[in-house]
Amino acid sequence: MSTPAGAPRVCRGIDEFRAALADRLGAAPERAPQEQTSRQQVSQGQASPGPASLGLVPTMGALHEGHGHLVRLARQENTVVAVSVFVNPLQFGPGEDFERYPRTLESDVELLARFGADLVFAPSVAEMYPGGEPLVRVTSGRLGSVLDGASRPGHFDGALTVVNKLLNITAPPVPAAFRAYFGEKDAQQLLLVRRMVADFALPVDVRPVPIVRDDDGLALSSRNRYLDAAQRRSALVLPRTLRALAAGELDLGAARRRIDAEDGVRLDHLVVVDPRTLVPVEPAPGALALVAAHVGSTRLIDNLVL
Amino acid sequence: MSTPAGAPRVCRGIDEFRAALADRLGAAPERAPQEQTSRQQVSQGQASPGPASLGLVPTMGALHEGHGHLVRLARQENTVVAVSVFVNPLQFGPGEDFERYPRTLESDVELLARFGADLVFAPSVAEMYPGGEPLVRVTSGRLGSVLDGASRPGHFDGALTVVNKLLNITAPPVPAAFRAYFGEKDAQQLLLVRRMVADFALPVDVRPVPIVRDDDGLALSSRNRYLDAAQRRSALVLPRTLRALAAGELDLGAARRRIDAEDGVRLDHLVVVDPRTLVPVEPAPGALALVAAHVGSTRLIDNLVL
């Protein structure tokens, strides 16, 4: 078993990855995870100190410190940590940035060595979809057709289709706890993954990880690298407006106007919703404020619990 | 472990069923399946004499000898055999026979004792869909929208949604081969399940089982019990016409006219298709003839490889 400090093994093929998983899980020493799980986690049933456990972090690569938090939590909670790196064509619409989405596997693997991953699953599109685009897919229903789903038709169906497949590929072939890690920045995706896991009876615990922000408050995103310096400054209107909304300094209408008034920023939506149903509610503690906006040609999202 | 001749254990809850599966698989003696698998099966990689293996037969109950063939094959090939009995509301359309579909669990369990099942999973609708109808579902795409899917909109989406969930629930929690058994009478369903298993990377071998016919040639179906004596005689036009088509005695037009001319029978479709794509082809050896018709108010299907 590679140590957290060593380079992770990169697998390109599904069969190779599954064999490596079985090998690592079988070879995992009978010990608690690298760091003890907290009493709170155990009492919530979110972690068990079994002899082997597997954490999966699904990513599209172009890794940053936000992914680092996901992988480090997986490292704390599991004996084996796998990270998938796959830019999934199904979740990009026509005219979106599938072609130019950054592909930086070499530096991703270097980062993953630091973050503590054991295995990297980096399949080609042909490996994941050998017959072309899949005929049978996951559909996300009403929860996937509002907000980001309204702006990006088919996006969540594509995202759930690949997450379901990645979970099936990665599910431990030997008795072991199985956890998958998703960032809270993609709040609607996280909600839909939770629903899918429940609706499909997938044998995995979904573990949410809080948003990581740069010092200036901008939520980390692989797409931030599209921004030039002026756009980067303009983008700060998103977290600042969310904070003002949470502090009660602005109502929703004023908050929307503030974002739209920012140079080079075009608001897609700013809403306050019930975090379980995505139904709009009056701003109140526990409600979730969600924002999406184009900064130049780059679409950014952010959110904050009020 | 119950012997094939004993009464199977009936589980109503998902957790209870999964615990029973783990128990039976762990307790399964290290032996080859009850009957040796044939050399042909082994050479096709369809059966392995591992220490434990699990066969699942998904059904809607109202069992008959056609199901018997499925369960007996599962019994031959696996150390543990589970049968699910669940009338899945998602795959019935408005005005279809969900309410009156026969529910005969007591006699089903008696039959399953004879067929050799170890476990029966018979959940309620509330157990399978605790939050009401699932938000996230499986969608069957083009292959699910033609033929029976055109006549029954949403039927295959509903069927795949429950099959996916049943497979996830039943997937062995310990290392074991996993096989699921489907009848060839539901040819389009079988094709779609195969596609789903490939597209979703589900860890299961799909095993097809040939159609079982009564002495008069009618394909066994739970819905045959809806037929009165005269309808039953009329229904024989379906297998007879398929055989005449296969023998080259009728062309497709004449075959359709023959079915439509039968008293009380209303043809839905009679087509000859490529069995992998369901695209219509000229009748030729290896092509698949598919028929669907209403006999009275009962919708029946049948098929035959030419």
From TrEMBL, chains A, B:
Q: Where does it mainly reside?
A: cytoplasm
Query: Which residues are ATP-binding?
Result: 60-67, 183-186, 212, 220-223
Binding of beta-alanine, residues: 91
Q: Where is the active site?
A: 67 (proton donor)
Q: Which reaction does it catalyse?
A: (R)-pantoate + beta-alanine + ATP = (R)-pantothenate + AMP + diphosphate + H(+)
Q: Gene3D superfamilies this protein is in?
A: HUPs, Pantoate-beta-alanine ligase, C-terminal domain
Q: Which HAMAP family match?
A: PanC
Q: Which PANTHER family match?
A: CYTIDYLATE KINASE/PANTOATE-BETA-ALANINE LIGASE, PANTOATE--BETA-ALANINE LIGASE
UniProt miscellaneous comment: The reaction proceeds by a bi uni uni bi ping pong mechanism.
Instruction: From the Swiss-Prot or TrEMBL record, give the protein name.
Output: Pantothenate synthetase
Specify the taxonomic lineage. Answer: Bacteria, Bacillati, Actinomycetota, Actinomycetes, Micrococcales
Q: Which gene encodes it?
A: panC
